[in-house]
Amino acid sequence: MDAPKTSPSAEAVVMQALSAIAVIITSSTLALHWKNRNFPAAIMMGWLILLNLFNVINAFIWPTDDVDNWWDGAGLCDIEVKMLISSYVAIPGSLVCIFRSLACVLDTSRATLVQTKRQRWITRSVEVLFCVLVPLLAAATHLIYQGNRYFIFAVSGCVSGLDRSWVSFALGYLWPLVVCVIASYYCGLLLFRLRRYRSQFNEVLRAANSGLSRSRFLRLFFLAFIMLLALTPIQAYMVYVQVKLSMPWHPFSWSLLHGPGSSWRVIERIPTGGAVYFDRWIPVASAYTAFAFFGTGRDASRMYRSFLRPFGLDCCFSPMENKTSGSFPHTSGSAGSRAHLIPGRGKAQ
């Protein structure tokens, strides 16, 4: 048997370095979305920061295949696998909220400048449901079908264990795909409204009084659209692989899974030959994509300048001011000022 490598692989070094940079650059996009009160996008950026931070930490703790000298990850991995389970539904859940929010902006049937109290309550409820409650529920239900304590992969670190039963399918790896399908519905609704109001897009956006400029609206849409295009086939593939690997399913038994003599407390160490578990690249790619859309624009430039100004380094970023304020000005029209945008209502007045 070959002796384990004592130095990290090139892939491990590259992944760790890119993840460390991703943590830094995603922090700026998180700050921008938080400043703009875009809760779902800020939550998504927070998850990307956390997942990339896990990449850095895990590659530092378990850099090689020297499993005999590995730390067992007690405590860290117990928390990390639950966070990973949550992230699998939290990020698609954020996309649901982003697409729904953008679709509501183009919903001319409301015909009001601002959302009613009930509409705001529904929006917040949907955001809390998909960004907070569903991820927490996913982490909690993992205890039901947790096949072993966790796996430790070289470089990639902590990976959750699943029982080989139908319960893992029903409560576990099916739900990220289901949430992606829900996000696809709202994405389709948004695409329909974009096409329907393409000639009136600026008018509708201005009348919505959402604080979104055309540029910010489209950047948020394209970021979410690209992530949905990437995540949906990946989640479908993951469901296929998990079902294939777990077959044949055995009958689910709580006592056998969690009782004395079960493998529920077993920690399995897996050498990888320096290879990185493929899903660890997803938050890396997502972070750089998010930065490309939101970390290089006018809003970001102004934020960088304000941060560097106390150090006298604000000259590093030349001012990039909009001709307007970056969002449409608030109009003073009546609550029914969007009515002329609704087909068939403009002539009824």
Automatic annotation (TrEMBL):
Annotated Pfam families: STE3 (PF02076)
GO molecular function, one term: mating-type factor pheromone receptor activity
Transmembrane residue ranges: 12-34, 41-63, 83-106, 126-145, 165-192, 220-240, 281-300
Keywords for this protein: G-protein coupled receptor, Membrane, Pheromone response, Receptor, Transducer, Transmembrane, Transmembrane helix
Membrane topology value: Multi-pass membrane protein
Taxonomic superkingdom: Eukaryota
InterPro entries: GPCR_STE3
Region feature (Disordered): 327-349
Localisation per UniProt entry: Membrane
GO process terms (BP): pheromone-dependent signal transduction involved in conjugation with cellular fusion
GO cellular component: plasma membrane
Family note: Belongs to the G-protein coupled receptor 4 family.
Protein name: Pheromone receptor PREA
